[in-house]
Specification:
Number of domains: 1
Largest sheet: none
Shape: globular
Oligomer: single chain
Radius of gyration: 16 Å
Amino acid sequence: MALASTAALWFLPFVLPICLYVCFTDLSQMRITNQAVLALATVFLIVGLIALPLPAYGMRLVQMLAVLVAGFALASAGAVGAGDAKFAAAAAPFVAPGDLRMLLALFAANLLAAFATHRLAKFTPLRRIAPGWKSWEAGWKFPMGLSLGGTLALYLVLGAAYGR
């Protein structure tokens, strides 16, 4: 992995609770809150100064801006939800550029597993564990925050364990 394990260890204690919160709120309310997105971006802005060399920090901010622009275009076209696009932009600077292919593969696997698990729970008695969740009644819509938050959390855990 291109992500330094020390950087992942710096980010992980702050990012993991936000990722779990995003997974929960998207499952229960079908939304990713602006507070979670702002918290994630703030963590990077503050902790990134400690965890990364200054040139890498600047490049990661450019990544955030690029993903924000792309996400805005996709959300405007109705391809993704606005919260999903904002969360992806806030999550982008945590990813080392050299890990993009690995992150996409991790996201694809996580998305398939989350979708299958959500649908399995939705149509079985497991649904009774959380009867009020809006994601059960969302039709074909899927709470993408479950996959987005899970992918970022897993990426940082893998970075802490196997990073350079």
